[in-house]
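Input.
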Amino acid sequence: MAKGKGPKRQQTRQRKRTWARIEKKDRRNLRLWAEGARETILRPHLAGYVDALERGWRAERDYVREVCNEFHARVSWRLGDDEEPEEPLPEYDPLAPAEAEELDEEETTMKRERMETLNARINRWLKYRAKKMRRPTTRDRAQDAWGVLLSKLAGIKSPPKARQGFQQYMHESYEAEIKPVVDAKWKSRLVEDDGTSLRTAKAPNAPFRAQVARELFRELPEDEQNALVLRAKEEAAEERREYAELMKGPPSRAPKDRQR
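Output.
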C-alpha cells in the first residue's frame, strides 16, 4: 500500500495549481498594485535603479525622483488603484514642464497626499525587485575593504587620529611662534664651542621640531593647553563626519578630487 501511494504523491507535487487572476477592484491588498500599464512604466527603470544604488544614496534618491516624475506625467493622480490607465500611455518628455492644474485648497491637499503615497509605493516597488538583481555588497563603503580601496583611488583618505595638544599648537602657530625658537635652537647646535660652524649639519628634523613644540606647549597657560586639545578633538570629529558622508555617496568624478 505504501509503495502505491508514492508515485501519486510525486505526481501531486508536480501539478501546478492554476486560478483566474482576481480583478484589482476585488483584491484585499495592494501587493500587485502596479500590475498592468503602470508596470510598463516602472519595470524599464529597474536596471537604472540598481545602478543608482551602487553609486550611493544620493544617486538613488535622484533616480527615484525621476521615475516618480515620469509616472505622474503618464498616469493621473486622480486614477484609483483599481483602475487601469487608458492605453497607449502618453509619451514622456523629461524636459517638458509639468502641466499646471487649477485646484482649490482641498484638491491641492488631496493631490499632494496622493502623490506622496504613490511616490513611497514606487520606491518600495523598485527596492523590493532590485534586491533580486543587485550583487551582494555592504551598503557602507567604510565597512567594505573593496569599497575603501576604490575610495582611496578616488582620492578619499581615511581621517587621521586627533592631534595631540603640542601637534595642534604646531598646526595653528608653527610659523609665528614655534619656528623662530626652532631655528634659534637649531642654529646654536651648528656652532662649536670655539665658534666654528658645523657644515655637515642639516635643517631641523621632525623629532627636533616636535621636541621644541612640546617644550613650548608645556609653557603655555593651562587654559590655552586645554583649548588646543579641545580644538584638535573637534577638528578630528568633523573630519570623521565628512569622511562618513563621502563614503555613503559615490566617489567624486571631479578632476580636482581625483588628483588629490
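The first helix runs from residue 2 to 14.
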